[in-house]
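Case study 2.
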Amino acid sequence: MIRSSKGGRWRGSAAAMGAAVLLAGGTAWAVPATAAGPPATRAAASCAVLAPGASAVAEAAVRAACEQVGVWYTWGGGHGAQPGPTYGQVDPSDPASQHDPERLGFDCSGLVRYAYARATGRDLLAGNSRHQFETPYATARFGAAQGTAPLLPGDLLAWGAGGAIHHIAVYLGAGKMVEARQSGTRIMVSDVRLGGDYAGAVRIDGGAQQPGGTFSTWGTDVWTHAEPSTDSRRVHKFPGPTTVRVQCQKHAQTVTAEGYTNDAWSYLPEYGAWITNIYIRGGAWLDGVPTCP
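Prediction:
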């Protein structure tokens, strides 16, 4: 569901606070370990790391999100000054949100923000679901057509057509995810929904911000290539618009498509492939992106 970065002030008692988390630079702040009640009494048995292979950070994020199963979904929840549950707001477009100002909890992106703050001690993913899907802290990206096969626990699944991301959840493995879904419900474990406007997934490792920049693509059935040339091997096809991280760009083969001509190509590290800049929204030469060696 559409959950913006709005959020009220967290009004939980001191007893609900968890251990202090040390941020980069030595600043410590307290992250609530749970929104209400001991985790063991609320977390569903099925909410856990359900597949091997994830990083320690990703597994910690899964556990943090799972501790919140049973906590209220609340519109704008989790977007206070610090990661953690907040009282929500009324969403004018959703009658079910009328009680959200009375409910301490999270919206979808608030839960994701909290989970990775608990896992890393850094507030990496402040912002709404679109900001999180486009984060420069992503180390891998997966298109909708790839399904769940390449995913690992802790990956973030996103929904939204044409780059307009409106929902995000944390993958558990085995086709399951934990999510703050919509007003009137509580944080839950769900089957991954690959239909509709599922947009793909990103992987976060909590390390340094990745070089380059994040951009939106356009066009349909756009192929990436092993080299900056349409004559090279095809690597991955984008069925429609998506979000990609560009590590660097270079001048190479001149391409004419969609009424444009350009010799600039961008390298997409998460795909190990190149795409002509014609299909990346921005200038013919992307601002802020370094030249490839």
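The CA atoms of residues 36 and 71 lie 7 Å apart.
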